[in-house]
Amino acid sequence: MHIPDGFISMDVAVATVAASAATVALSIKKIKNSTSENTVPEMGIMAAFVFAAQMVNFPVAGGTSGHLVGGALLSILFGPFRACIIMTTILISQALLFADGGITALGANILNMGIVAPFSAYLIYKFLKNRKLKLAIFLASWISIVLSAIFCAFELALSGTIPLKVALPAMTSIHALIGIGEGLITVPLVTGILKYHGAPTEGIS
Amino acid sequence: MKKVVLTGLILTVITLFILSPHASSLPDGLERVAIRYGFVEKEKKIVDAPFPDYQVKVTKNEKVSTVLAGLIGSVVVFTAVVLFFKLMGKRDETPFFR
Asked: Which residues in chain B have their CB less than 8 angstroms from residue A59's CB?
């Protein structure tokens, strides 16, 4: 779902940079002096894993592929504010080193995959985890992808790239499928890690 | 802590060395929509990234190139995240009564 340069207008670029910068700044404020020393290498290695997993596109339907975004995974493991910072780090690295996602689209990509994805996933997970853990993780993952795609559709439409009535159903339907993959990958990873960790390492804050 | 780091390391190594060379090259969700609705040609390159499309220039073997690019990215991301959170300071875990 990485938006390349050229798909979004300057107005949308500026607005999404502002929104993302504000949220990242808030996240930094929230996590200052609040992370256990033991969690730092865990976050580093899981960030490396999410980066690597984002390279692995899996085919879905109709000649289309998708890949793990990882916003839900990181958010459930480390809390949404840390997840936001980790995802932002990954997205900046991808744009600068690998031309994956445009420089002018960085704000939009951070908003979609680094903010909307982890925060929406966290809310769903928190709300449902005590009823059915696996379902909570799956839904959190699925919704994180679908909601990111909806944000992406709005950004494209506001940029005048494609009308909203076309973008919204097209982006939502394909990402409803890709989101299933996100869920199928995230559920065993989270449950596996929770099994010997007891609780999400830094779940709340 | 060690268990999560070890699990993460194993997952990353498997993903990089075994899975990434076999990634699907089909267009992703957004690209598919862009192709179908005719705005894919709006894509433009404004900066030259050192490893475009996850390829390094040292080898012509595409699979090896992908693994190397992935390795570089993983190391960069790991280092950046660890350094950043170290800079952000750790939680004060001194017991209240001592």
From this structure: 24, 26
For domain A10-29+39-197, give its CATH number from 3.40.228.10, 1.10.599.10, 1.10.1760.20, 3.30.750.24: 1.10.1760.20
SS3 labels along B36-74 = HCCCHHHCCCCCCCCCHHHCCCCCCCHHHHHHHHHHHHH
Residues of B in contact with A201 (CB under 8 A): 4
Please, what is the average pLDDT of chain A?
94
CA A13 to chain centroid: 18
**pLDDT one-digit tens code per residue, A64-102:** 999 999 999 999 999 999 999 999 999 999 999 999 999
Q: What percent of chain B has pLDDT over 70?
A: 93
Contact yes or no for A42 and B5 at CB 8 A? yes
Question: Phi/psi at A3 (nearest 5 deg)?
Answer: -80, 130
Distance CA B8, CA B65 (A): 23
